Amino acid sequence: MMKRIKFITQTLSIRISLKIVLAVATLLAVALFIMFHFSRKTLRKDARLKAEQTLECTVRQADNVLLSVEQTAGNIYWNLLSHLNQPERMFLYSREVVESNPFVAGCAIAFEPYYYQERGQYFMAYVHHVNKNKLETVTSEIIQAETFGNVPYPEQIWYSEPIEKGRPCWINPLKNDKTEGEAIITFSMPIYAPGGKIVGVLAVDLSLSLLSDIVLSAKPSPNSYAVMLGSDGSYIVHPDSAVVMHETVFSMDRYQTNAELKAVGDAMMAGETGYKHFRQDGIDNYVFYKPFQRAEVPGRALEKTGWSIGIVYPEDDIFGEYNQLLYLVVAIALIGLLLLLVSCQMFTHHRLLPLRMLTQSAQRIAEGHYDDLIPDSHQQDEVGRLQDHFQQMQQALSEHVGEMERLTSELQSRGEMLSATYDKVKDADRVKTTFLHHMTNQMVVPVSSIESNVKKLSEHLQDDHQEEVSQLVGDIEKKGKLVMDLLNDLLNVSQGKEKE
User: Fold this and answer.
1) For 440-495, what is each residue's pLDDT tens digit?
2) Of 477, 457, 476, 479, which is closest to residue 466 (Cα–Cα)?
3) Is 108 exposed, middle or buried (0-12, 13-18, 19+ CB in 10 A)?
4) Where on the phi/psi map is residue 356: left (φ > 0), alpha (ψ -120 to 50), or beta?
5) DSSP β-bridge partners for residue 222
6) CA-to-CA dists, residue 438 to 340, 432, 433, 444, angstroms
7) 8 Å CB contact between 69 and 169
8) Which residues have CB under 8 Å from 481's CB, separation 6+?
9) What is the pTM of this model?
10) Could you give the CA distance from residue 262 to residue 250 in angstroms, rounded to a whole number?
11) What are phi and psi of 218, to 5 degrees?
């Protein structure tokens, strides 16, 4: 399998196709990265602008509700100043406040202890909605006990804070044992007697559930929601009513364990403007936040409330379609690259078929088949010209090999002739050597006889044996002639060999 893969990757058409696809993929990846990078920045910018606009509209809507409560309280305030000596009228004013404004959950007009001696230590005219979801059901209730909730009302913040400040103010959400069971925020105004002394407090309760319905209805996306924090970290608006009733941003476990969420809470409590990313319950979110700023209206007290409002924007709402488009484009790009790879491979494979044929021809030539014909090329490109040149080279090589074979055959024939001649020469040398040995042997006897006769002649040279001497001389002469004849024959044989 690995050899097969290695063979495929070493195929020229595959390598060319892979390089083309790699180059196209690189350019495509760079282009897509740049396009989607700036698209993401644009989407984030658009989401930020949309969230800021939604925040601004939400602040204005919420502020309009607060302003309507403030104006309702202000209108009643000037009426009751002229009837401070008529405590029974305070219930009428409280009822009028509740009935005239649909956002008001209750109204309390409370006075300093023993302000009305005939009414006892505490006097408060309090009217509120029995059922906050049915505003037409209104009842009044006189609170003359020492406590409102679980402690006397002079000790509660909605009463004590405006007296301490000496001006109207909004009180952070009151809930649990500090209310009659419903989470509220309260607008409190100190009541000044004609002499300038504070004699009581006019407090108008705004139902957080009603305010939340108004604020939460402003959504820049299907899954976004608004959050409003009081100056003490309590929730004024939150989509989970249980959180509004029982939690603050500091008391939530996630605030202590989630660093990103803690950074968001700290930034909002610090009155900052901006946005942050955080992850909660496995969901990535962006929160856009700003301080809650009230509109400037003549005669309105613009003391800073310390509240902050934010829009929680799930990342999927911002980049959901963007991510789907990204996945779709990536899938299309991958399919396109795959089709490009197949197309390039088929095209290059077809265009490189002559090279495959030339490779096989070269292999055949390497094996000694110089006569294999290479067909003419029908292509006019480099591959076609290469095929033509290879054909010419093969023809020239075939002719050259044929010439070499002819010369080799001729050299072989001449070699055989030389070998035969050499064999003849060796035979002649062998005959010559035999002849010389024979002739030498023939001369040994005469020469030995001559030598013997000479010795005898020298011994009898002084004697008078003439006949014997003459006989020896004749014998020597005869033997010498025999040797001479042998030498002539040897000389004649040598001269005849040289002539040959």
Assistant:
1) 666 666 767 776 766 766 666 555 566 776 776 777 777 777 777 777 776 676 65
2) 457
3) buried
4) alpha
5) none
6) 98, 10, 9, 10
7) no
8) none
9) 0.59
10) 9
11) -85, 100
Instruction: Please report where in the chains the tokens 């409003």 appear, as a residue.
Output: 228
Query: What percent of the chain is modeled with pLDDT above 90?
Result: 6
Q: Please tell me the distance from the alpha carbon of residue 265 to that of residue 56, in angstroms, as a whole number.
A: 19
Q: CA torsion 203→206→207→208, rounded to 10°?
A: -120
Residue type, 427: D
| Cα-to-chain-centroid distance, residue 270 | 37
Structural tokens at position 212: 């939340």
The secondary structure element, H or E, covering residue 139 is: strand 138-143
Is the predicted pLDDT of residue 342 greater than 60, yes or no? yes
Q: For residue 103, how far is the Cα from the chain centroid?
A: 53
Contact 122, 146 (CB under 8 A): yes
How many whole angstroms separate alpha carbon 414 and alpha carbon 233? 118
Residue 493 has a CB neighbour count (10 Å cut-off) of 15
Residue 115: how many CB atoms within 10 A of its CB? 17
pLDDT digits (tens, 9 = 90+) for 222-239: 888 888 888 888 888 888
Instruction: Write the pLDDT tens digit of every residue in 82-134.
Output: 889 888 888 889 888 888 888 888 888 999 999 988 888 888 888 887 654 44
Of 50, 66, 51, whose CA–CA distance to 237 is shortest?
A: 66
Give the dihedral sign, CA 24/30/35/40. positive
* CA-wise closest residue to 124 among 199, 66, 174, 49: 199
In tens, the pLDDT along 239-287 reads 877 777 667 777 776 666 788 888 888 888 888 888 888 888 788 888 8
Structure tokens at 60: 């204005």
Q: What is the 3-state secondary structure (H, E, C) of 276-322?
A: EEEEECCEEEEEEEEECCCCCCCCCCCCCCCCEEEEEEEHHHHHHHH
- The pLDDT value given to residue 135: 40
* Residue 60 buriedness (CB in 10 A; 0-12 / 13-18 / 19+): middle
Q: What is the DSSP string of 251-284?
A: TSHHHHH-HHHHHHHHHHHTT--EEEEEEETTEE
Q: Do 198 and 192 touch, CB atoms closer than 8 A?
A: yes
Backbone angles phi, psi at 87, to 5 degrees: -60, -30
